[in-house]
Specification:
The structure holds two protein chains of two kinds.
Chain A: H1 2-34, H2 64-87, H3 89-117
Chain B: H1 3-40, H2 56-66, H3 77-93, H4 110-114, H5 125-146, H6 150-181, H7 186-196, H8 200-203, H9 205-218, H10 230-233, H11 244-268, H12 283-305, H13 311-338, H14 343-375, E1 388-391, H15 397-400, E2 413-416
Antiparallel strand pairs in B: 1-2
Helix pairs in contact in B: 1-2, 1-11, 1-12, 3-5, 3-11, 5-6, 6-7, 6-9, 6-13, 9-11, 9-13, 11-12, 13-14
Classes of the chains: A mainly alpha, B mainly alpha.
Amino acid sequence: MAAVGYLNAAIFFLGGAGFVVASLTFANVLNALLLKKRPAKSKYAIYESGETPIGSAWIQYPLAFYIFALLFVAFDVDIVFILSWAVIFQQLGIFGFIEIVFFILVLALGLVYAWRKGVIRWI
Amino acid sequence: MSDVAWIVVAAVVKSAIAIGALLTIFAYMTLVERRVIARFQRRVGPNRAGPLGLLQPLADGMKMAFKEQIIPTKARRLIFVLSPAISVFVALIAFAVVPLGNTTTWGTSPVAIAWAPFIADLNVGVLYMLAISSLAVYGIVLGGWSSGNHYSLLGALRSAAQMVSYEVSIGLALAGVLMLSGTLSMVGIVHAQVAQGIWFILAQPLAFVLYAIAATAEVNRAPFDLPEAEQELVAGYLTEFSGLRWSLYQMAEYINMITVSSIAATLFFGGWTLGGLEGIPGMPFVWYTIKVAIFLFIFIWVRATLPRIRYDQLMKVGWQALLPLSIINLVFTGLAVALGWPWWASGLFGLGVLLIVAVVLYNRLRLRQAMERQSGEAVPLALPSSVRLVRIAPATASESGDGVVAAPAAPAESVTTS
């Protein structure tokens, strides 16, 4: 039955992709057929509240974003393990619980470390 | 025809119905939202296009399709064009594993099962859902980055940081439910709730609250709609998008709302079941729709009620409140399941934690109000150290009398709070 599920999901994927392509093509065709283009330099400039944009948009951005991304990777990998453990947990019993408590303890230590370092505070 | 052919036909028809239904619900969701918000604000809302404004979504859709789709000269064209498509595609396919009824709703023959009211009953349903919803961040980040606009880039980065922060809490909160159900399949989780005779909200109230908060942040809805904070970032990642590309982003947001509501209904509120009443033909779908509709209404209600929170508060809530609480919930649920305690053990524990959190927050509020009453002016906000408040004194004493701002006449100083 699982194979049928994946087949159905694949067909649904195709349907979703078909819709996206169709709607974008539809709008592009309408644009091309009906729109009277009046190109102006200011129209195709980026919008910065009416001011002339200064410099490139690909600027240096705060490092904090990067640290959150790193933390996320650490925790998300842990979640993959925890989810797969949670599913078969009832068969593992108390042994499985003690094992995962150690695992979660390491995770929690990481969080405490990040907290003490002050990196999960947005500054 | 062979069974396989029937299965393919059923899948094609169901996919078409699901996509059509999602788009229709999205269209009418925008209308309902505008009308309901209008009622909250004592206005009438759009009611001119057709009876009760029912043709308004159609008019909006027509307008959007006919608008020029501007691509700024500074934008990276290919990624700029592709990113709204990625966004809406990911939002659509996440719906594949949401069950609107039982596998055997129409009978037990293979063909009848092929017409079961969901696209796919994957045995990794919840994992699939988490994986696909993680992809949603790509559409937003690529769209904001490729616009070539400062506001777009910052809006996209904020959105990415927000979504990854809250995804961790979602995963850990759902792990509590998975421990009780022992399966990742969405249909299997509903069956587990029927077998145990409870909705998992009763056993996992804390997980549900954590999921509700984190999911609201995950779909960028108020009060967590920081990426679109117009006072700071124009329209965030949406700034440079126009025409149909803009409406594709809107579509993605609303479809994501429907999906997270569906997950909440399935995992915590028994999906299509309602205490045995799902046996009546046609009714599972009705119960399911009612549950999802209630969640969607709460989304609108929250948006009409709560102000947007600050970005540093957002990160603080995500990492310092939701994440530790979800770890506590996970450990206690594990303990309860391992020792074979009944479901109300973890339920009572969750309620207790929620009560403690509520009391702590209430005491803080009371303390703050008392301090304000004593000193007669607002207590300085707990702002991050990078924020500097500048208090500007009135120019002369005579002018300060009719000034609009009721600030005390202090010398110009820069107040830094930590």
